Amino acid sequence: MTAQENIEIVDVPPEKRPGLDYILEESFEGWYLWHSRRRLRDVEIVRAAMSSDKPVGLVMTKTLDPNIGYVYYIAVAKAQRRKGIAKLLLEDSLRLFKSAGAKDVFASVEEDNAPSEGLFASEGFTPTSFNEVSKKYGNLHTVNMYRVMTVVPGEVLLHKVMS
Ligand SMILES: CC(C)(COP(=O)(O)OP(=O)(O)OC[C@H]1O[C@@H](n2cnc3c(N)ncnc32)[C@H](O)[C@@H]1OP(=O)(O)O)[C@@H](O)C(=O)NCCC(=O)NCCS
After folding, report:
1. In sequence order, what are the residues at sequence separation of 6 or more whose Cβ sits closer than 8 angstroms to the Cβ of residue 150?
2. pTM listed for this prediction
3. pLDDT at position 35
C-alpha cells in the first residue's frame, strides 16, 4: 500500500492547529518559520493530511476574492516526504477552490526551492509577474493582492488558470 492510500485530508479548526506546529518547525526557518506560525493561527483554511490519526502534512489557503485562490504554505513532515502527500494536499486545495468558483490560483515559492517548484509545476502552475497579474486585475487590485499574499523579494509568484 502506498502512503497516499493511508492518507485522509481534513479541515483543522483553530483550536487544533497547534498540533501542526512540528511540521512547520521541520520545514521552515527564520522569517518563514515565524510567518508560517502566524498564518497557522489566523488563516482562513488549514487542511491536514492525517496518517493513522497523526498529522503528517498541511496546507494553508485563502480566498483573495471570489475568483482568486491563494496557497500560503504547504509542508510535509520530513520523514513523510516524497510519498505524494504534498501533491494530495495541493490537489485537495485546487478541488476546493474550483468548487468555490475560483478562476485563478496563485502561490509564491522561494527561488531555487526545487521541491516546491517541482510540486507546483506538476499541478500546472507557471511563474508569473506583477506586470502580468496587473494586466488582468489592474494595478491597484494587484498591489493589494501582493500585500495579502506577502510576496517577498527572493520569491517567485506562481499561477494556475483553473479550467
Ligand atoms: C515541498 C514539499 C511540501 C513537498 O512535499 P512531498 O510530500 O515530499 O511532495 P510529493 O511527494 O507530493 O511530491 C510531488 C512532486 O513535487 C516534486 N518534488 C517533491 N520533492 C522534491 C524534491 N526533493 N526534489 C525535486 N522535486 C520534488 C516532484 O515533482 C514530485 O512529483 P514526483 O514524486 O512524481 O516526482 C516538502 O518538500 C516540504 O515540506 N518542504 C519544506 C516546506 C516548503 O518548502 N514548502 C513549499 C513552499 S510553501
Report:
1. 35, 108
2. 0.96
3. 93
